[in-house]
């Protein structure tokens, strides 16, 4: 019988092979982007005019930061659907424990919450980055500037997020970010408010009203990636809604024939909450 004369050497070799086998998986794990959820910002102005602005600010930040490979952004619409499903009020999003619950439900590692207030002519936006695993607030920051210079505030916000998430950007990363920010540039607060109201229509399922307003906004800012993507989404939703209504009407006609008629549900063209 032949015995292994060098058991320790054999164990060392096996350990080395195991390490080499594990390296690709370890590298992949290290390179996988962090999942980040940006929640709707709270309106602390006391002015109903700004009620929808939090949707627009979140959408703008998601669009800007989505060009960075180091992070993966949760879709804004998915977060809004979750909020509606759980009947969350806006204010609890600021609470780290609630942010943790939301993050766990969408598979996020970090949740960004925010609020804004105005002291004319300035706007102040505060943000917090919450670690979903520990509920620790990784970073709290505040930016302030004239409300008619939202582009500068948008850039400052992005920097606070990048710093708080511990991202190290290359020059190529920063070039992509600047290009996206410039493409999405909106300086006029009225345009941002109109876009935010459109998002409210989208979230309420009033797709026809949203498409109508989004077309006007896109025509005014034809280079905006955010406006293009939002309009595409709205047109898809509107087309699906038309098909649904046609199916409801067909079922209603069949119901009348067999004496089982039920009126087809209709959505509000312009939801009162928007």
Please describe what this structure looks like.
By secondary structure, the protein is α/β, with parallel strands linked by helices. It has 2 domains: 32-185, Rossmann fold (3-Layer(aba) Sandwich); 188-274. It is built from 9 helices and 6 strands; from the N terminus they run H-E-E-H-E-H-H-E-E-E-H-H-H-H-H. It has helices at residues 7-31, 53-65, 76-86, 96-106, 150-164, 171-183, 189-204, 207-220, 225-257; strands spanning 34-38, 42-43, 71-73, 110-119, 122-131, 137-146. Strands 1, 2, 3, 4, 5 and 6 form a 6-stranded mixed sheet that branches. A hairpin with a 2-residue loop joins strand 4 and strand 5 (122-131). Helix 8 packs antiparallel against helix 9 (225-257). The longest helix has 33 residues, at 225-257. The relative contact order is 0.11. Residues 9-29 have low confidence and may be disordered.
Question: Short summary of the structure?
Answer:
With 274 residues, the protein is of the alpha/beta class. The protein contains nine helices and six strands; from the N terminus they run αββαβααβββααααα. The protein has two domains: 32-185, Rossmann fold (3-Layer(aba) Sandwich), CATH 3.40.50.10070; 188-274.
